[in-house]
């Protein structure tokens, strides 16, 4: 595997997994990467943590992620179906520590 790439696993609505190779050397957020992979993410605010339309549920690897900012927490707190493992993909910058991350699009999003 290229040292500039990590594997991210996306759980599909039918329960199957799709493994994606994500570049960590381009400065992309998880939201930007998922949109580039043609996942149905609105990202209405363009990645400013203002809309929660890029919400994902982290199934494995939550401990690998950066700490949640106050802005991200405040936006997530507006969701009626918030889960303890929900995060905004726009606030998760792809980095080598995220190798093996397993997510699914938040039920209310896709």
TrEMBL record:
PROSITE patterns according to UniProt: 2FE2S_FER_2 (PS51085)
What's any GO biological process attached to this entry? P450-containing electron transport chain
Recorded GO MF terms? 2 iron, 2 sulfur cluster binding; electron transfer activity; metal ion binding
Q: Which UniProt keywords apply?
A: 2Fe-2S, Iron, Iron-sulfur, Metal-binding
Q: In what residue span(s) does the 2Fe-2S ferredoxin-type domain sit?
A: 4-109
What is the scientific name of the source organism? Pedobacter nutrimenti
Name the InterPro entries on file.
2Fe-2S_ferredoxin-like_sf, 2Fe-2S_ferredoxin-type, Adrenodoxin-like, Beta-grasp_dom_sf
Q: What is this protein called?
A: 2Fe-2S ferredoxin
Matching entries from PANTHER family are given as:
FERREDOXIN-2, MITOCHONDRIAL, FERREDOXIN/ADRENODOXIN
The cofactors required by this protein are: [2Fe-2S] cluster
Which Gene3D superfamilies does UniProt cross-reference here? Answer: 3.10.20.30
Any Pfam family from its record, for instance, is Fer2
Q: Which family does it belong to?
A: Belongs to the adrenodoxin/putidaredoxin family.
């Amino acid at each position: 595997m290229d040292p500039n790439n990590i594997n991210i696993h996306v759980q599909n609505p039918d329960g199957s997994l799709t493994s994606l190779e994500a570049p960590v050397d381009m400065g992309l957020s998880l939201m930007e990467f998922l949109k580039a992979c043609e996942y149905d993410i609105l990202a209405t605010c363009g990645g400013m943590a203002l809309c929660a339309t890029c919400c994902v549920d982290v199934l494995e690897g939550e401990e690998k992620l950066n700490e949640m900012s106050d802005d991200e927490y405040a936006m997530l707190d507006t969701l009626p179906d918030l889960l303890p493992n929900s995060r905004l993909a726009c606030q998760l910058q792809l980095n080598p520590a995220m190798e093996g991350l397993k997510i699914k699009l938040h039920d209310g999003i896709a």
